[in-house]
Each structure stands twice: as C-alpha cells, then as structure tokens.
C-alpha cells in the first residue's frame, strides 16, 4: 500500500475498513498480513479500534467469533435492524432447529443417529442446514457402510455469536428441562441425555418410530 495513501487513514480506520470489506471473521495474523504490520502491533490496533467504537457510540462493535474478529452490529440496534428481515426471510423451522441442536451437541454424528434421537426422518432438515452452510460433512464413521458424519461449521459459530464450540451452553439438568419443556420436547431432551451417558449409537439403527418426515 502506498505510504501517502496509508497516512491519510488512521491505523484503526484501516483495520475497520479491512474487517468491513471482509465480512467474515479474520484472525489477528490475517489482518496483520493485509495491513503489513506485526501481530502484536495489529492486536494493539484492534484493541484501540474497539475503544474508539465504544467512545463514539458507534452502531458497530468488534466481536470475537470463530477464532477471529468481525465487525458486528450492537444489540441496541437489533430492533431497528430486524426490519430488514421483512425483505429476506430465512427463518429455520422448529424441527430443523432441533436437528441442528442435536448435531451441535453430539457431533460428529450420522443421519441415522439423529433420526434415532428425533424419531422422524430428517432428509429435508439436513438438506436445509447444508444449504445454509450451518453444517457440513466432516468425515465417515468407521463402521459397516461408512456413513457420513455431520458437524457444525464456522458459519454456525458466526450465526450464533460464539467463538468456539466450547462456548456452547451446557445442557440443563433434567429438573430444569422438565420445568421448561413440553412433553414431546422433554422426551427428546431425555433421549439426548441417555445417549450421552450410554455412548455412541450404532450407525445402522433405524429411527425410533415411523412418523412421517417433517
């Protein structure tokens, strides 16, 4: 980058521009490479940028997501931004969200294992999650037939505002679940708890019942 052009932009403004243009989270090392500075200096600039955003009450903030930094809107602006959802509706149905939750907590997991937990066929839910890039194929289970294993993606981390899978909330106790869930939801929760205690399911098990696919 020509020094004259760079001198017209503060270092914090430069990092802000890079993150805005990138859209996706960037690691400190990646940002340092782009702005041609060392990692430590870049980290200091990122810290100053967050302070500047706070001081000027910007509608944007820096968020640590998926091992990197991303420009994101502040929670205080969510009510206004929600109006944009009227233009593009990409809501995930409750059954699809249940499937995503199982994958998030039990990954890597096969389709048959998910169907065993949910008690229904999940082809459409699985396809929707793949299309939205919230999940991906992460390997094959070393059993007969070598079924595909599914896991969550960096897109999942960004969408749910978490940095790593370790930041996923712990499953509630059975007593807490009983107080918050209806009968069918509680049954699903208890099945997940049972599987966590008992270990992996066999990949070739059939779904628990033959209810029509959702």
From TrEMBL:
Keywords from the UniProt entry: Cell cycle, Cell division, Chromosome partition, Cytoplasm
Transmembrane segments: none
Family annotation (InterPro entries): ScpB_csome_segregation, WH-like_DNA-bd_sf, WH_DNA-bd_sf
Pfam families the UniProt entry points to: SMC_ScpB
Keyword Cell division: yes
Cell cycle as UniProt keyword: yes
Biological processes annotated in GO: cell division; chromosome separation
Gene3D superfamilies in alphabetical order: Winged helix-like DNA-binding domain superfamily/Winged helix DNA-binding domain
PANTHER family: SEGREGATION AND CONDENSATION PROTEIN B
NCBIfam families recorded: SMC-Scp complex subunit ScpB
Name of the protein this chain belongs to: SMC-Scp complex subunit ScpB
Organism: Selenomonas ruminantium
